[in-house]
Amino acid sequence: MAAVAEARPQSRRFRDLLEDRRFLAPALIGPAALFIVLLVGAPLVLAIYLSMTDATAGQLTGKFVWFHNFVDAWHNDNFRRALRNTIVFTLASQAIVLVGAGILAHALVRPFRGRWFLRLLILLPWAAPVAVSTIGFLWIFDSQFSVVNWTLVHDLMPGGGHFYLYRPVNWVLGGIDHLPWVHVGKIQPLNPPQWLGQPTLAMLAIIFVQAWRILPFATVIFIAGLASIPTEVHDAAKVDGATGLRKFWHVTLPLQLPIATVALLFGIVFTATDMTVVYILTSGGPFNSTHMLTTWAYQTGIVSSNLGEGAAISLYLLPVLLVVTVLMLRFARRVEVS
Amino acid sequence: MPENDDGLEELGLSKSLTRRQVLRRTVGGFLVLYGGTLPKVAAAGVPKHVHRQYKNTLKIIQWSHFVPAYDVWFDKTYTKRWGDKHDTDVQVDHIALAQLPARAQAEVAAQSGHDIFGHLSPQAGLEDQVINHKEIIQEVTRKVGKVSQVGFKSCYNPRTHKWHGFPENYVPDPIHFRKDLWHQVGLKPSTWDDVRKAAPKLKALGHPVGLGMSNELDSNMLLIALMQCYGAFIQNAHARPSINSKHTVEALKTMRDIYKNGMTNEIFAWTAASNNQGYLSGRLSLAVNAISIIRSAEDANPALAQNTSVAPIPRGPVQRLGLEHVMGVYTIWKFSKQKALAKRFIADLEVNYQGAFKNSKFYNFPAFRGAVHNYTRQLAADPHKGKYKVLDLIARKYTVNLGYPGFSNAAIDEIFNTWLVPQMFAQVAQGKMTPAEAAKAAEHEFKPIFAKWRARGKI
Q1: Quick check: B199 and B205 in contact, CB under 8 A?
Q2: Is the ipTM of this complex over 0.85?
Q3: Could you tell me if residue A178 is inside a domain?
């Protein structure tokens, strides 16, 4: 055997080595692993270290203060509000995304004229740079020149027909106001809603923009999930008499769950760790009521030079996100279709 | 299966690419492309610089000035001439003002970047990262006279005896108001009480007053200035928090009244440009801002400019006392390799501040009053009927540093940068807290910040 092996040309041996899984797998995965260790692992370890020090701007070391920064942050009202906002922001935007992506994916998976164009349009929010699209929304919600407010309070009927959109909207809001514990107020044409100037409206605006941004990503994943369901399954369901909502509930949804879980997992991580939308739209205002952990960590750690405390704030969500990730991956594996 | 594939491949009949082929073609393609560019580079030779080769390079970063003409003068005239004289290629980068703090932190973290960093507020939090600028202060003082109080208290740390920045300029913060509208309501914004009385009438005319309570620079400055007029301060002269006082409560009540009767809730969503936009669009009857408003009006809407008065901040029950609108502070990083050159540049700029003063259209006031000769005469000579003469009065009598009556320090920086003062005012205006509760809540926020920086030996 040895003689035969030696007789093989050099290139053949190299080719065999390339085909050998023991060599090829580490060789291919190595760069990615190195990339993750250097660009994710190392900064994470550094952040954990900094969070336990009193490091200030520009210092990558500091006096060891153990969990003092975490305790300090917890006692700050703005921090606790930011933590609550992050949870609300993440859950609410992902709920919108899940429902929206589910509906869109079911609509877009069917063949129809112009489908590719519609898919392209729906993908655009994801493809556009986040800063640019969010600045667009900043103008849409502007305190003085908001196009939404303009549409609400200006006469929309050509020729002076006197159709003001705020009137029917107020009628609806009046109905909502009759519900117990709900007060939404009415739109005043001379003092229109301040989308970024009132805490509730500002949170709604931020959630809306984030959902708008993540929706295309989830839709594409949902479409891929739907397309991967074998046609035989649909045929079998049809033979068994399952149609419409019944089929969706008992056949499509369970088969779609694993991939939906992946979309949700990514969405949660993207949203909980995002700061662009909040930073550009409100900078945490009005009166620091829309800060997320990310923006509050930035204000504290970067702008105010408290690197240690900023690192502690940013790490608060890490255990939660880790648990969410592990749970979702386990769930995805359990419901995986083989 | 693999054997079959190998056999087909050897015969050149494989239908799909193997991993080996993918790798081989990728590497081959890369080599072809790479090889293709080499001859071109070789043919082109070393890139030729059309500009003169300088012995040194000095890198500066600062904001994109509100007055674009200033940047043109600074980049294309001043630095070029200075560079020629000192055999130095002066490279200037401009970024948006809101990006400055993050950029400074990034440079410090990377321990590389620009030799001179131009901030728009004192950066006491970065004290450990910058050189002591004392030497430049001494040289400029020798040549043009003493530094202004606002410059001194902004950039000097009495605890560490270190100049953590060089005060290059400060910007007076006047009010702008519409003469016609205020005449109509029969008042002048001389006191905050006048503003409180006029605000509902002006709002009824469709021209509310514009006093921001948002997470942005102008709101921060205005509200701290309003507090000062009521005798309320963030800290006392010994750097102890003093926010929870009856003076603060009075200031909060005034602002709540002005908001409720004379403003709309847009002011909670303002950006730094919003009061400019609101005033220039003709909607607002009063705004507190640097002269960027009136200068823009002179260019775009001369009638509005004609109809606008520039005046000192209204007087409060205790005093009339505003803040610098922005404080231009140059710092030299400890990591800079061109410290000597950077010091030379800053000293020369300040000693010859005439050009900067003129080209900023009187926006930048020299932190060393003697650096611009006869600037009162220059202000009076402005073609707009001496409108800017009042800036001298504002600069001399009604402008103090952030953190007054104490020094600007890291705790003040943190309070300023986390928008805690606008937060306090907005919570009262929106009825979330009473004035007394808000002042107490602010004290609760401020105390740990002061304690933290005191423990670090910075205050």
Answers
A1: no
A2: no
A3: no
